[in-house]
């Protein structure tokens, strides 16, 4: 496939530096996995919730905050189309987390990821039947076509060639593994094989390919959330690297640098979170306490809940009351509008 056609391959020094940094963090995560499994279990639950929420929200699919955790962790029955898609994303994550070592990246695998994350949609697991364009909607109502993906007629063969090109690159060590994963995702998005859900499948494909190459950070820190937080840059670099893609004269590097930056951010966040949590009991309490410490101004319980999706609201309230009894925080107001602040922060 087009991104795998580079014969004269030289990476810029910035990309090499990013890859070396990621390799160092990768080793630290593996050490944590052996020494502190309880910490990883808590981070895993939080990452699953954040990933299911963010990957869908990027595409405009949202669910009520109160429904998110029961839907993703408690396996609550979906009530509408949006909830079906969030629950479906969780099922796709389950498949990747439990079977990534035994899954080949093939057109059939990609269709299965699409089937899962599209819930009960009529086109779940089905490739597009009509040509589609990637568009940009302007505030004044104008619609601009920024990229024309592969035609519906050519999509099956192009997907086949993409998977074969990626597999050949990995087996023959043609390119660095992270570069090969970035090329896989870029080419997938350029083909745009589905009517809807391509973005979500691309993020699931990213996780699957990274796990298979030993980069497990997305299991404990939501890469989808990091992408959502930087989605303007995400779309910008994707657009830059897709120019002249059909002629195989495109520049992968803008996308690759963004891709590496996202992975490195996830590893840094993992080290920050895991490194500040002591092994043993009370892991969730420490996670909530860290979230409170990060608040620069007065905050609501709902804000802490968003930062700690793996922790229930009643538990957050208990922790706050405990800190209040110790004089570390104080409550401002009463009822639903009550806000909290650290005692040493009077802003």
Attribute tags:
347 residues, mainly alpha, Fic-like fold, 2 domains, two-stranded antiparallel ribbon, 14 helices, globular
Can you walk me through this structure?
α7 crosses α11. The protein has two domains: 2-275, Fido-like domain (Fic-like fold); 283-342, Arc Repressor Mutant, subunit A, CATH 1.10.10.10. A hairpin with a 5-residue loop joins β1 and β2. Strands 1-2 form a two-stranded antiparallel ribbon. A two-stranded antiparallel sheet has the order 3-4. With 347 residues, it is mostly helical. It contains 14 helices and four strands. The model has no long low-confidence stretch (mean pLDDT 90). The longest helix is centred in the N-terminal third of the chain and has 23 residues, at 13-35.
């Amino acid at each position: 496939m087009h991104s795998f056609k580079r014969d004269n391959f030289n990476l810029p020094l910035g990309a090499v530096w990013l890859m070396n940094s990621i390799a160092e963090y990768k080793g630290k995560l593996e050490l944590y996995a052996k020494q502190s499994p309880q910490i990883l279990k808590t981070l895993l639950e939080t990452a699953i919730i954040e990933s299911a929420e963010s990957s869908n929200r990027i595409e405009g699919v949202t669910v009520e905050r109160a429904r998110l955790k029961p839907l993703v962790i408690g396996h609550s029955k979906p009530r509408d189309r949006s909830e079906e898609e969030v629950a479906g994303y969780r099922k796709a994550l389950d498949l990747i987390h439990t079977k990534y070592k035994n899954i080949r990246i093939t057109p059939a695998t990609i269709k299965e990821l699409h089937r899962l994350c599209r819930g009960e949609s009529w086109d779940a697991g089905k490739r597009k039947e009509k040509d589609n364009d990637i568009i940009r909607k302007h505030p004044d109502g104008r619609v601009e076509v920024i990229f024309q993906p592969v035609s519906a007629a050519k999509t099956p063969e192009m997907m086949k060639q993409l998977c074969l090109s990626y597999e050949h690159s990995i087996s023959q060590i043609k390119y660095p593994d992270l570069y090969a994963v970035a090329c896989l995702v870029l080419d997938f998005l350029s083909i745009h094989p589905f009517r809807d859900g391509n973005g979500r499948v691309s993020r699931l494909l990213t996780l699957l390919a990274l796990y298979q190459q030993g980069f497990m950070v997305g299991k404990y820190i939501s890469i989808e959330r990091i992408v959502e937080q930087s989605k303007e840059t995400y779309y910008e670099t994707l657009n830059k690297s897709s120019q002249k893609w059909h002629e195989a004269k495109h520049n992968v590097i803008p996308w690759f640098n963004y891709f590496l930056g996202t992975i490195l951010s996830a590893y840094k966040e993992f080290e920050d979170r895991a490194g500040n949590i002591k092994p043993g009991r009370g892991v969730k309490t420490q996670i909530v306490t860290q979230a409170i410490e990060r608040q620069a101004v007065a905050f609501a319980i709902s804000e802490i809940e968003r930062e700690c999706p793996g922790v229930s609201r009643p538990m957050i309230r208990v922790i706050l009351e405990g800190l209040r009894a110790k004089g570390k925080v104080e409550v401002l107001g009463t009822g639903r509008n009550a806000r909290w602040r650290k005692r040493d922060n009077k802003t």
